[in-house]
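[step 3/7] fold_predict: job queued, chain A
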Amino acid sequence: MKILGWENSEVTLNLRKQVDDLVLEAMIGSIPQLLFSGYMAFVEKGSRRESELAYFERRKQLAAFCLYLQYHERTESDYKRAVNYFEELLWAVNNEFTWCVMAHLPQDKNNFLEKPETQIDLFAAETGETLAEILKLHSNILHPFLVNEIRKRITERIFEPFLAGSWWWETVQSNWCSVCCGSVGMAALLLTEGDYKLKLLQKVDIGLVNYLKSFGEDGACEEGIGYWVYGFGYYIYYIALRKEMDPEYQQKEAVMNKIKKISEFPRVVQMSEKSFVPFSDVAAKSFLPTGLLSYLQQEYGVRTPACEYITPFDFDNGYRFTHLSRNLWWTDKGIFHRELQDEGVYLPDRQWLLQRKNGCFLAVKGGNNMEQHNHNDTGSFVLAIQGELFLADLGAGCYTADYFGEKRYEFVQPRSRYHNLPLINGQEQVDGAVECKVETVSVNEEFADITMELKRLYALPELRSLKRKISSDMIKESVILKDSVVSTEEIAIEEGFVSYLKPGLTREGEIIIQGKEGILTLCYEKALLDYSLEEFSFENHYGEQVTAYRIGLKSKELKREFTVDLSFVYRKC
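[step 4/7] structure written:
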């Protein structure tokens, strides 16, 4: 599906201007080099940034040049120079020793354990798909030798290895399944024919059935909004291309209904125009691809979340051609609006409660501590005003070997301590598949109430019960938290709350958090609880140092039974 006239549309003007600027700047310099020292930084230190910076800069340039050459169509004085640079860039990418990133290759300290050129990870699959689209769009302006070499490389690195065996990501219920299978499928649709094409697509379709199983009937993505964009985006891009190239292709009604439900997820978890619930590995600011949103609205009749402009070129630090191209080709101004609908929703499969009214937003997370991109955060909650988080979730950390290894829960983002959760006898929640028990729940746009049993999330045999009740009144602009603990031994409880905004103790029993969009007052029983404030710094998903604060409210006495009542009253500025 193309929105006709995108090449000259005012809707796409800003994005086309960004592409033009990137192309003209790139031609002044040279093609980014993938250095040995960058790869060794991962082998020796587990750091991904050194090798991936140049890798993704190349993909950024691939996307920009491909689109630039498509919509200018020899109209620019720099067109020939751009074609020459583009061919050199394609030659460099085509001859990379692997299309995988270093973090995804089987290796030890001294060598690769399997042939790196035939491994298929997310980025190898994406690269193959991008090159296939480039050939489809630009074979007429590229040298035939280069075109043939690229075709051969895609076959050797993507199609043949995909058919030769079973890949673990074909059956996993996560974004890996969708991105890898969807990329292989799109490349196959564009470059192959006959029985060979049929074999590839049959295998792709089986894998994508597994991807849809990662969603329950509520359509929620446990990996968070960023991975909804990533995984579900590639699923939709593949389905759209399949429909375009095969008019007889049909989806079952049950699949269509599930797609519609999944498509509603961004609207439900939107806190403001550019911010979404930060549960799991979610970046601090999230942009949604307006091309994808336009397609979902037109093809499935889905109500879109609030957005005002076409998505910028650099919204995705992987610079994925599928996102960027569809933003240009598909974005329809009919999706642009700024209004956030007031609503209250409970997503039973993921046990998320979400409530939004008059710019105020509450989200409570149940679930378990063995989810995709897991954080030990069962029972945590966030509170925002106009998208500004007063009670925060720190979202995604910087991706390194350790962040996805045994040291994951030493990082602040996945740790239970740095979520809005209690410590019991100083102990945090542990990771594991045990799910919290939601005992009662009700929600609408004005009132919400949820009670959860969390005892099994703590590895404490003496703990008999930890009930958390959160009640919200959006009319009175207040949230009441009640934690009730029962133990066979005397224990201490310490309530913890995290914010990017520095709290202040106005007097004992009252804490103020002042932001740009409002003010939050936390009231506690000073006779029962001692106040403390921890300031800490950490590296965010983009490698930037960020400062945040943790409020501690610790019981003054040890008891076998303990109830903590806290109130949060907020108002907008």
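[step 5/7] annotate
The chain has two domains: 6-335, 343-572.
The mean pLDDT is 95.
exit 0
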